[in-house]
Automatic annotation (TrEMBL):
<protein>
    <recommendedName>
        <fullName>Glycosyltransferase 61 catalytic domain-containing protein</fullName>
    </recommendedName>
</protein>
<feature type="domain" description="Glycosyltransferase 61 catalytic">
    <location>
        <begin position="414"/>
        <end position="587"/>
    </location>
</feature>
<keyword id="KW-0328">Glycosyltransferase</keyword>
<keyword id="KW-0808">Transferase</keyword>
<dbReference type="InterPro" id="IPR049625">
    <property type="entry name" value="Glyco_transf_61_cat"/>
</dbReference>
<dbReference type="GO" id="GO:0016757">
    <property type="term" value="F:glycosyltransferase activity"/>
</dbReference>
<keyword id="KW-0325">Glycoprotein</keyword>
<dbReference type="Pfam" id="PF04577">
    <property type="entry name" value="Glyco_transf_61"/>
</dbReference>
<dbReference type="InterPro" id="IPR011990">
    <property type="entry name" value="TPR-like_helical_dom_sf"/>
</dbReference>
<dbReference type="InterPro" id="IPR007657">
    <property type="entry name" value="Glycosyltransferase_61"/>
</dbReference>
Length: 647
């Protein structure tokens, strides 16, 4: 009888290998499903929530939460989509928000260490959710594992880069007394390092290690080039950019980035490279090497007609910040530049927020509505900035037929229109020279914005609707200077608008017991996580709940004109403190991460008492602090403490 002992194993091997391949394919498909992601997230969340209470660094952080509270907050945010887009086999780098190329997958790298790959995924989710200390701790632990060291270092470097950029931006406003870091006034945070303390050098060190460990990974070089650019290390940025370019197919994005990084080192070469990258659009796009200057300097050179109206001024702002059962008195001195009216021989109004390019070669620094660190962010035709030079790339300006027009800005936000833009008219509204000059307004301006101009006595026949979405060139452009800027209100702007809109403002008196809670409109990018309990407390304290976003301007003025206390989450609705009595009291609920004197500066100009109840911040991570919407949670004991002093 013939034996089959030698052929049976071979015949059995073929189907077993096929079945194994089938299982592998099925496993890969399962890993990509939403269900698997959700199950894995909740498994890792349960494990981490139980052990994080024993980690000293986390217990010293702002997110020192109970096990149940951490689990519920993170789970709720995940189910709302925050972090649910993270892939198990590919890191999401928050600093690469605007990068066209997709990050390099690392699935095959962690095949032999799936558990480490799972924790990489979870660290990435926590970073997206704003649990920075938890994410950092996990990445540092994973960086000690050789199988995933380079991936963990890139993830950690991305996190530290984000925090360093935030710290740089925040400090630009903090040193001017505009932004508040209440954590540094609390005993338990006195010796704790928060994101406010991050430096570019920390993140650069980690990312440098990452590219040394894995030199052929494009993501590491991209992150390092980005970070050196943010830090102003132009040659290092260019070196990293070249390494990145050698690993990737060149795109328009990368060619533009390369030109922008060369510009601070060699302006002529940077301009030439940008023009080459724009070659297919030549004729209707242009590149300008502009000098960044102020109107005063330009006027001193007789390059424009300049007339100073008011001297520089200051405003003291006092507020009480409540956090962790303590009252923190905050005193800031805000400084405002001299106001003026300028007439340019020729000027271009640049897109988005109306910076001025004068005489085709001067970018006017004081035409920006934010600090210099945010110049390219809010005027995106500015591609690079180095010292007093700017690389501008945009379409050729559309010529406007009329000359001698007035431009006051075109921001559609309620606060910015009322206190940044319209008050600029105060510098020309009573001038015989400018009384009949046409005023440029956005073709997309809301009806309430036009009605506000009418209330100030501006006849409709003077308005000229134009499209500000592209550069607009105007001869003999008249531009009153910004009064309010950099997220704080100028006292002259506050008083001008109050006198014009509330004629009986001097006689307003608070009505005892009239307490208003200004609800935030639906769809806000920021939410208060314990809003239900907070609203219940304010309801028991006798507050009426209103949504001013659904009211006309007259209705808002009437409602606020005798308010005793105005409260609510920070937002544009607090601009309405403008219409309240001087003896009104303001209570603003805010995330610790984004507390600024935007609305307290209004109250300070009117002599109103300001209170800020700070809550735990849960950022919705964005590469820039200024745009990082934060969910938050205020402590009920802090509300009680505030009520004891205010009501």
């Amino acid at each position: 009888m013939q034996s089959h002992s030698q052929t049976a194993p071979a015949s059995m091997l073929r189907p077993s290998m096929a079945i194994r391949r089938l299982y592998v394919r099925a496993g890969k498909s399962l890993v990509r499903t939403r269900t698997f992601h959700t199950l894995l997230f909740f498994l890792l969340l349960s494990i981490h929530a139980l052990r994080r209470r024993s980690i000293p660094a986390i217990q010293r952080s702002e997110h020192r939460l109970s096990t149940c509270r951490f689990f519920s907050v993170s789970a709720a945010r995940f189910m709302k989509g925050l972090g649910s887009n993270v892939e198990i086999q590919c890191q999401i780098y928050v600093c690469q928000r605007n990068r066209a190329a997709r990050p390099v997958p690392h699935g095959t790298r962690v095949t032999k260490s799936p558990w480490l790959g799972a924790w990489l995924y979870f660290a990435n989710v926590l970073k997206i959710q704003g649990f920075f200390d938890d994410s950092e701790m996990l990445y540092q632990w994973l960086a000690g594992k050789s199988a995933v060291r380079s991936i963990a270092l890139r993830g950690l470097g991305d996190l530290l880069a984000l925090q360093a950029v935030w710290a740089h931006e925040f400090n630009s406003y903090h040193v001017e007394g505009i932004a508040i870091n209440s954590l540094k006034h609390l005993p338990r945070f006195a010796q704790t390092k928060t994101w406010h303390d991050r430096s570019f050098s920390e993140a650069i060190s980690v990312l440098t290690d990452a590219v040394h460990v894995e030199q052929d990974n494009a993501d590491g070089w991209w992150l390092l080039a980005y970070l050196h650019t943010q830090a102003g290390n132009w040659q290092h940025a260019l070196d990293a950019d070249r390494k990145y370019s050698a690993l990737c197919v060149s795109t328009f994005e990368e060619r533009f980035s390369n030109a922008a990084r060369i510009f601070p080192i060699n302006r002529a070469a940077g301009v030439s490279l940008y023009e080459t990258a724009l070659e297919s659009w030549s004729g209707w796009w242009r590149v300008v090497d502009a000098e960044i200057t102020t109107v005063a300097d330009l006027g001193a050179r007789n390059d424009t007609s300049y007339c100073q109206v008011n001297e520089p001024s200051t405003q003291s702002v006092k507020a009480c910040v409540v956090r962790d059962g303590e009252i923190i008195p905050v005193l800031s001195e805000l400084h405002f530049d001299a106001s003026y009216v300028v007439e340019y021989e020729y000027a271009e109004i640049l897109p988005r927020y109306g910076m001025i390019l004068a005489n085709r070669q001067y970018l006017i620094a004081d035409s920006a509505h934010m600090k210099a660190c945010h110049l390219p962010l809010f005027t995106d035709v500015v591609r690079a900035v180095s010292d007093n030079r700017a690389l501008i790339a945009c379409r050729a300006a559309m010529p406007y037929v009329s000359s001698g027009c007035i431009y006051i800005g075109h921001n559609q936000n309620y606060y910015h229109w009322l206190l940044d833009e319209v008050p600029r008219l105060s510098l020309v509204i009573d001038s015989d020279r400018h009384k009949d000059a046409p005023i440029l307004v956005d073709v997309n301006a809301a009806q309430w914005q036009i009605e506000l101009l009418h209330r100030l006595g501006i006849e409709h026949s003077r308005l000229r609707a134009v499209d500000f979405s592209e550069p607009l060139g105007v001869n003999s452009l008249i531009v009153p200077s910004r009064l309010s800027t950099a997220m704080v209100a100028h006292p002259d702007a506050v008083l001008f608008m109050r006198d014009r809109l509330v004629p009986n403002a001097k006689t307003l008196k608070a009505k005892a017991g009239k307490r208003l809670y200004l609800k935030r409109s639906e769809g806000s990018p920021r939410s208060m996580l314990n809003e239900g309990r907070v609203l219940e407390k304010f309801n028991r304290a006798g507050f009426s709940f209103v949504d001013t976003g659904r009211m006309t301007l007259d209705e808002q003025i009437e409602l606020l004109s005798d308010a005793e206390v105005i409260a609510g989450p920070g937002g544009a609705a607090f601009t309405n403190a403008l219409f309240a009595p001087r003896d009104a009291k303001i209570i603003m609920l805010s995330s610790t991460n984004v507390t600024c004197h935007t609305f307290t500066s209004i109250s300070a100009a009117l002599g109103q008492q300001s209170w800020i109840i700070n809550g735990i911040s849960y950022p919705r991570t964005h590469p820039h602090w200024i745009w990082s919407a934060c969910d938050f949670e205020v402590a009920e004991q802090d509300i009680d403490l505030c009520f004891n002093h205010v009501l």
